[in-house]
Structure formats: structure tokens, C-alpha cells
Specification:
The radius of gyration is 25 Å and the shape is elongated. The chain is mainly alpha-helical. The C terminus is likely disordered. Helix content is 50%, strand content 8%.
Length: 255
């Protein structure tokens, strides 16, 4: 959901030079903001749809149009047979923001952007100006929405508790994990939960079920990541097997 304090910046060259308008302009501006410093847009189509007040199907058509215009590139990543799409603007367009001259096929200069001088009290350059990118809160919302969506999908499948909002504490915990692990690694670890009976409350000794807050706990996260819960069950199963074998042996030779 788009919050009142969130905003994005549409720059003049996106309209004048790239001839973008409507939802394609909005989508390009959002993805452009996340394409700085070799980053990518990893949010969902639903998030873009909320920003454009459109449908998911409409957003997909807009994205395909931008790709055909060679303005966006798409990368598909599969995690546990689930496809995730990553988008970024092509590097050639980033040069406009940096004020680099472009030369067309006829050798003529196409555009040199006029950069407004900073106020006397401000020494921040255009390249470092946060107003030329998406608000940092928007990036937080992208991560939050993606992980909320994936967790709730897992929760419905495995009868775990759903989450309805991303509290500041959850954002903090997620940010700490993202500093040490990639988004793909965190999602892969999340998907492992559905194969661990203990975390799903499906054991004879305990009906405790993992929550999203438990998952964000780094100690528990690492244990899931490294297969710690699997090892525990293997040991228990082996012990049970040995007990059954001994018991069977006694009965066999007890007559």
C-alpha cells in the first residue's frame, strides 16, 4: 500500500527524451530509482499496480512495452521452483542523469541536461541528491511487501499465523538480516520451513509453531538456514529406531 509520505521523482528527460507517459512513465521512474549503484527493482507487480492505480495484468503489459523499447531489462530468478522477476533500467539511460552528452547516429548531440546550481547553503551534488531517487521509505516498503506476501503464502499453506502489518521492529530485524544475507538466501530459508515438522507443530512432543517474528530472529534463522532442525530430527529418529530394534529383539528372544 502506498503511504501518504511516499513519493517518487519523475525527471524531465523521461518525458522529453524518452517520450514516456501514463503508467509507463510511473513504472519507469520507480524502477529507475532502484537501478542506481547496480541495484535492481525486486518488488512485486502488485506494488507497482498500487502506485499506478492499475491492475497486475495492466502492469505486466506496461513492463513488456518498456522492455520492447529497450528501456528496461528483466532477469528471472528461480528459488525452490518459484519464479522471481528483477527489473532495472538500462545503463545507457542512467547517463542522462549524470549530465553526459549522448550522440545520435548522425553524430549530432542529442541532449545535455541543464543542472540547476545548488543553493549556497547546500553543497550536495546532483548525483548524491536523494530527491533524484525514490524515498528510502519506499525501498523499505518494497522489501516489507515482498516478504509479507511470501510469508503469508507459506502461512496459508502450512497453517501458520499470518502477518497483517510490518512493524518498525520487524523492519529493523529484516534490515539486519539483509545486511548479512541476500534476499534470495532469506527467501530460500523461509521456504525450508514447510519441510520441518517441528516448526509446523507436527510432532508428538510439541504443537508449537514458528511465527514470522521467530523467523526474523537471527539465531533461529541461522538454525533453519544451516539445517539445524533437520539434524535434530535425524538424531531423534535414529534413537527411536534403535529403541524399537532393542525392544523387538527382547521380545524375539524372550520366549
Amino acid at each position: 500500500m502506498v503511504k501518504n509520505e511516499n513519493y517518487l521523482v519523475i525527471q524531465g528527460w523521461m518525458i522529453a527524451e524518452l517520450k514516456l507517459k501514463g503508467n509507463e512513465l510511473l513504472i519507469y521512474a520507480i524502477i529507475y530509482g532502484f537501478s542506481q549503484n547496480n541495484q535492481q527493482f525486486t518488488g512485486s507487480h502488485r506494488y507497482l499496480a498500487d502506485w499506478c492505480n492499475s491492475t497486475r495484468q495492466g502492469i505486466m503489459k506496461n513492463i513488456e512495452s518498456l522492455i520492447k523499447k529497450n528501456l528496461l531489462e528483466k532477469k528471472e530468478v528461480y528459488i525452490n521452483n518459484v519464479k522471481f522477476c528483477r527489473y532495472r533500467t538500462l545503463d545507457i539511460n542512467v547517463e542522462y542523469l549524470q549530465g553526459v552528452n549522448k550522440v545520435d547516429r548522425d553524430g549530432k548531440q542529442r541532449l545535455q541536461r541543464d543542472v540547476n546550481k545548488s543553493d549556497k547553503d547546500s553543497k550536495q551534488s546532483l548525483q548524491n541528491n536523494k530527491e533524484d531517487t525514490i524515498d528510502n521509505n519506499l525501498l523499505d516498503n518494497i522489501d516489507s511487501l515482498l516478504f509479507m506476501e511470501k510469508w503469508n503464502k507459506l502461512a496459508k499453506e502450512c497453517e501458520l499465523s499470518l502477518i497483517k502489518s510490518f512493524t518498525e521492529n520487524r523492519k529493523k530485524k529484516l534490515s539486519e538480516l539483509l545486511e548479512k544475507y541476500t534476499q534470495e538466501e532469506i527467501l530460500e530459508t523461509m521456504f525450508k520451513i514447510k519441510n520441518i515438522n517441528f516448526l509446523l507443530g507436527r510432532t508428538d512432543k510439541s504443537n508449537w509453531k514458528i511465527t514470522f517474528d521467530d523467523f526474523l530472529n537471527e539465531e533461529k534463522f541461522i538454525k533453519i538456514l544451516e539445517g539445524g532442525y533437520y539434524d535434530g530430527f535425524k538424531s531423534i529418529n535414529k534413537q527411536k529406531n534403535r529403541t524399537v530394534t532393542k525392544s523387538t529383539t527382547k521380545r524375539k528372544y524372550g520366549f
